[in-house]
Amino acid sequence: MFRRLLSSSHSVRRALPFALPAVLVVGGVLVPLGYLLLRAFQAEPDQLVDLVWRMRTLRLLGNTLGLAGGVLALSTALALPLAWLTTRAALPGRRLITLLGVLPLAVPGYVMAYVLLAATGTTGTLAETLGLVVPRLSGYPGALLALSLYTFPYLFLNLRTALLGLDPSLEEAARSLGASRWQTFVRVTLPQLRPAYYAGALLVGLHVLGDFGVVSLMRFETFSYALYLQYNASYDRIYAAWLALMLLALTAGALLLEARLLRGLLLHRAGAGTRRHGRRVDLGAWRGAAYGFVALLLAVAVVLPVVTVGYWMSTAGAAIDWADVGASLWHSVSASAPAAVVAGALAVPLAYLSVRQPSPWSRGLERIAYFGYATPPLAFALALVVFSLQTAPVLYQTLLLLIVAYALHFLAEAMGPVRSALYQAPPRIEEAARSLGRSPLQAFFAVTFPLLRRGLLVSVAFVFLSAMKELPLTLLLAPIGFEALALGAWGYSNEAMFGQAAPYALALIAFSALFVGLLLVQETDPQRVKEVMSAETPVPVPG
């Protein structure tokens, strides 16, 4: 009993230096949301019923769920065939197709919306260059296509990783029992893809629920768009607070649904033996159709954005103020770089507690960090606005508040690579350092921290590039006169000034391509692919 108490006290002492940053994260994520709740319940009972059950709220709910369902269906229709072609088909150039299938991640959603608006219509890129007049996309169809083209790579990467890890013996057994190839795929292969599909679908759903840039440009009113309009147009922010809480409720519902679907799901091997790679399918006469599908998808998701941005830049000419573009680039970097460093610094103690000191409270701290990521950006920004105005008005619309918002929101992205590096760092060397008289903190920095540098650099790069692309947080929290690249691309596109928006969109694509480059580098190592995806899909299954 004494030894157990002594061991427990040692664990507490080791964890104490890492607890303070964890407490700061809890306060940064939960306290503003608490203020949002308090603001929402300032409404009188009659006013509360009117706010929640008005017809506009029901219409917003239908629009939001309809868009999320449509994007998920279209993303599945794009990602599943592409994942199968790159893993199961005897198709020359599979590796190149895989790499090209990730490239749409380099085009942020609101930039994709700008591209679709600028490419269609009687004066769009397609009409001016090819003579092809396509009705200008807007509303639900435009939002559906823009979000699907942006999010399908997340689903593609999850499904592809799952297909590579499946044991072909089950499919071979089904074929030996007389099942056709299609029947085997539907009855045997698809059920085994459920965990990967749920993870990818959750990420797609969270993107759609939290999206503001695409729906605002396409003029399709969802909870996020209505939240921004209500915040800007009304001095009474109670309804805006309720819209934020409704958006949070949808996000929580998506998380709980995924946890419910995965509960009790076991798909691993139960017998002895080693896993083999199955034979690739010869497509025969369908090879041309497969290449056509890939070519069409890449033409719309990759070639069209590049050509459209280039075309509108050439037409704008002298109308582009390059000094403003340079200033916007500097503003974006000046906020994103410190936020990335802060997020990396906060990720280290949280990941350390999760890996080295696993307990209910350390897992709870980790979940709270993930909750900050899962919270829709506009709702998170509004919570910080309410909190800062009520407690520290001097922070409102300052660069410091924007940096803190970036760091807290993208903290979960930083935790993935750091946590993976900690799992690979042997704890015995830290114990040896403590046995030589080092304090827990000295031992950590002397022997463990150097082993985390690679993971920490990846974490900082992820957060930096995510913050560079972030629109909703920047829109609500940016200081006066702060013009980031995201604001420039969205603002000019919102006014249909496509030529002036082009250089901002091009800069965002270039910076986003760095993120895609990180993914492509990891493609050579399947284990590193899993680590990268754990950083980009940082919402754990509640359990």
What does this structure look like?
It is a single chain. By secondary structure, this protein is mainly alpha-helical. Helices cover 77% and strands 0% of the residues. The chain has a single domain, classed as Orthogonal Bundle (MetI-like fold). It is globular.
Could you say what the CATH architecture is?
Answer: Orthogonal Bundle
The SSE string, one letter per element, is: HHHHHHHHHHHHHHHHHHHHHHHHHH
Structural class comes to mainly alpha
Task: Provide the residue-averaged pLDDT.
Answer: 78
What can be said about this structure in brief?
Helices cover 77% and strands 0% of the residues.
Topology (elements, then pairings):
Layout: H1 2-40, H2 45-53, H3 55-87, H4 94-102, H5 109-119, H6 125-130, H7 139-165, H8 169-176, H9 181-192, H10 194-210, H11 213-217, H12 223-233, H13 238-262, H14 287-316, H15 322-356, H16 360-374, H17 377-391, H18 399-409, H19 411-424, H20 428-435, H21 440-448, H22 453-469, H23 472-477, H24 485-494, H25 498-522, H26 526-536
Helix pairs in contact: 1-13, 1-15, 1-16, 1-17, 3-4, 3-7, 3-10, 5-7, 5-14, 5-24, 7-10, 7-26, 8-9, 10-13, 12-13, 13-17, 14-25, 15-16, 15-18, 15-19, 15-22, 19-22, 19-26, 20-21, 22-25, 24-25
Can you tag this structure with a few keywords?
single chain, 543 residues, mainly alpha, MetI-like fold, 26 helices, 77% helix, 0% strand, disordered N terminus, disordered C terminus
